[in-house]
Specification:
Length: about 280
Amino acid sequence: MRTTHPRLVLGLHRSRHERSLLTAAADLGITTIDTSTNYLDFHSHQVLAEVAGDLLPKFTVSTKVGYFPAGSTSEHSLDPGRLHTALEQAARDLGREPDLVFLHNPEHSLADGSRTQRQDRLEAACSVLVDATAAGLCGSWGISSWDPRPLTELARHPLPRPDVLMVRAGLVVGAEILDASETLVSRWQPSALWGMSPFGGSTTEPIWKRFDPRIFMGTGQDCSPGQAAFRAAFHLPEVDAVAAGTSKTAHLEELINSLAREVNFEAITQYRQLLARNDQTG
């Protein structure tokens, strides 16, 4: 029986959406893929259906709504009507209802207005996803936030509780973002917390040439710096799954193999304490 790996979500943000990658992911036991209406220049859903429509039933498919085409660029909106239309379009383009839909970076449309106005705006947007879930347009809903700090003061009753919260995770996430993510978890208490961008964009970022994350792994374990960074991301903050993007099957295999590695929790705790001290003195 094939081993499945629900803790690793294949993110398609930088992916070319090639069938070979999705086939390999399924063969490796990856059960979830994550995309968005605005990925691949707003063509992600259509391309997925065209190149791998028969493979999609093998996966739990999550997507996001919140960005819309605006000429040669995009714009963000929490307008309930636009969000509902985007949800309907996502189901049509994918050829199936997505299993999970995130409200994508709602903080981008919450900069203006009083706290009450911003909370009302966020509540109205969340209610669209609640209603869509009840109507069968998606299986469940969540919030994906790149910068959750603006959401912390708004995440209170009567705001609907998201099923899943997705936040940045890993060694490149600052103390304020980590603290805000944990505040949202304590107030919303979602059923699951996902992490994203565990490498801060790519394993080729300069930081990974200056810093060896294997200090966060248990002693006597053979792993690469990339594997160590990925495993540490599950504890910064504590998440149930991590979405990572790649176009290479070998990278997927490397990440899957890292899931069996043990983390040095004392090093993680010391790192969090160091982050907090630097944040207070900075």
